[in-house]
Amino acid sequence: MNPDGQLFTAAPGDVEISPLLEEAWASAWQQSFPPRAVGRRLWVRPPWETADAPGRVSVVIEPGRAFGTGHHGSTEGCLALLDRAVGDAAPPRALDIGIGTGILAVAAIKLGVASVIGLDVDPDAVAAARVNASRNACADRLEVRMEEPESLRDALPFPLVLANLLAHTHLALSSQYRRLVAPGGALILGGILEHEDSGVVTALVTAGFALRETLVIEGWSSLLLEASGA
User: Is the pLDDT of residue 34 over 70?
Assistant: First the structure.
């Protein structure tokens, strides 16, 4: 019966009822997260895929309610720039603002960064990042806090800062980035639509950064910037 009190009419034809295999439906979503090679050295895979890739560093990420699996152009771009920025001489410390699943922080550690502080205001993200850190055997090197970057008032500047956020958030945090990135340090930003990247670059250059590289994947721009030495 519809809201007006009238009976619904059935379409002509026979009605057939058949069972659905619950197991297939339960695992079908996993097909959206196949393992993938990112950058020169990274291999991002979900925990139900156990095969590693020869010559690559595995980053195991459980997809969940937090953002970041490596399958979005924004995250992939940040990972590729991180791979290039770290190079053969990894910085000793890094900061990940808006840590999400922890994929960037974990990848940084797997690439040789000694320790990472990760910040997020979403409790689901904080929980997911901690689980993924444990899954990758780097929980002792990743400190996850439910805080804003403004809370790091007494922290020494970091040689590497990561932030996969939206463009308007980068604009709002431009002065915080300059405070938190050490002179000569690297800032990797993601979550920026391609048509928005010029505005973000302008704001960051004004704040004291130089653009080193832009990487566009599927309409999303990721930026590698360097803090001035002053």
Answer: yes
